[in-house]
């Protein structure tokens, strides 16, 4: 089968398009003929920093048609369209993936859109669930223009929360107003926490959804209410950030790590993610696509996905 692979970590130009062995299917797996691939933040980080095993196919998220069903699998059949997640294997014509990591694509939902829903919107929905966000509360979304952030803005607004988002560009934040953003905070010389205190007249936020991490999270905790919850999705800012445990104790604050990929087979996360697919089908959740490339041009696709100022996912078709 054809796949986009690389042999060493580095910039997008490390990609090669060529033939690799087709994946083998276990009793609990589905074999998918891939139609659309969503390029996720983890795909970019892995390509830049982690050398793969020989002939290992990279990539988290892809959607396509089931062409083989493992002996122990129930609830799926050949010919159905599914969106899939795993820690590798999306950048190829065929993908073998655990059935527990697959979700049926509802009739009427575009397969390209479906490929983008698991990682970004799915994570956003699960994070909002973990944050226990309620109507009328205020949520701060760090990295609001990213794949998770864009969905979190929509879902929080739909819930009836006041939505504050941070980003590096006023232009990008302005676009998010169409998706439900109430207030945009441009990060830069003035700490976000200081700008938020001014915006809220000294009041604080009820919850934080953070896809950045590092010093950005530490700063945001300063404007989290007593008893508030911060949900950490990304650690692009730093994997080893000191956090004042005494302050967490005195303010009764909670920080929860949210890695949907490790829970995607569990009943409650699956229910939440399935609702995301239904919302997208009904037009209640938008998952815009920024650009589309063929799998053979994975380098250009990854290059575009690394550009700032975009709204929406970059995808590849097969």
From TrEMBL:
Pfam families on file: ADH_N, ADH_zinc_N
InterPro entries in alphabetical order: ADH-like_C, ADH-like_N, ER, GroES-like_sf, NAD(P)-bd_dom_sf
Domain of life the protein comes from: Bacteria
UniProt KW keywords: NADP, Oxidoreductase
Domain (Enoyl reductase (ER)): residue spans on this chain: 10-316
The protein's name: Zinc-binding alcohol dehydrogenase family protein
Native species: Billgrantia zhangzhouensis
């Amino acid at each position: 089968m054809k796949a986009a692979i690389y042999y060493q970590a580095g910039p997008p130009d490390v990609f090669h398009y060529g033939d690799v062995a087709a994946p083998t299917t276990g009793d609990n797996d589905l074999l998918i003929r891939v139609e659309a691939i969503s390029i996720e933040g983890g795909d970019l980080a892995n390509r830049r920093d982690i050398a793969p095993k020989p002939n290992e196919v990279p990539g988290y998220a892809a959607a396509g048609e089931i062409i083989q069903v493992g002996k122990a699998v129930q609830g799926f059949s050949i010919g159905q369209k599914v969106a899939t997640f795993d820690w590798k294997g999306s950048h190829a014509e065929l993908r073998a993936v655990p059935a527990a990591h697959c979700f049926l694509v509802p009739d009427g939902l575009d397969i390209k859109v479906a490929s983008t829903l698991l990682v970004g919107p799915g994570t956003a929905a699960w994070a909002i669930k973990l944050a226990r966000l309620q109507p009328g509360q205020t949520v701060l979304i760090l990295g609001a223009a990213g794949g998770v952030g864009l969905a979190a803005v929509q879902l929080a607004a739909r819930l009836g929360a006041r939505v504050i988002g941070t980003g590096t560009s006023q232009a990008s934040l302005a676009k998010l107003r169409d998706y439900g953003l109430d207030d945009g905070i441009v990060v830069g010389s003035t700490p976000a926490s200081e700008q938020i205190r001014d915006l809220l007249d000294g009041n604080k936020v009820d919850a934080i959804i953070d896809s950045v991490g590092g010093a950005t999270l530490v700063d945001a905790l300063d404007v989290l209410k007593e008893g508030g919850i911060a949900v950490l999705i990304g650690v692009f800012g730093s994997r080893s950030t000191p956090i004042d445990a005494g302050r967490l104790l005195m303010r009764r604050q909670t920080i929860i790590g949210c890695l949907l990929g490790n829970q995607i087979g569990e009943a409650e996360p699956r229910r939440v993610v399935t609702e995301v697919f239904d919302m997208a089908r009904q037009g209640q959740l938008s998952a815009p696509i920024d650009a589309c490339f063929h799998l053979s041009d994975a380098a250009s696709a990854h290059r575009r996905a690394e550009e700032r100022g975009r709204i929406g996912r970059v995808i590849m078709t097969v």
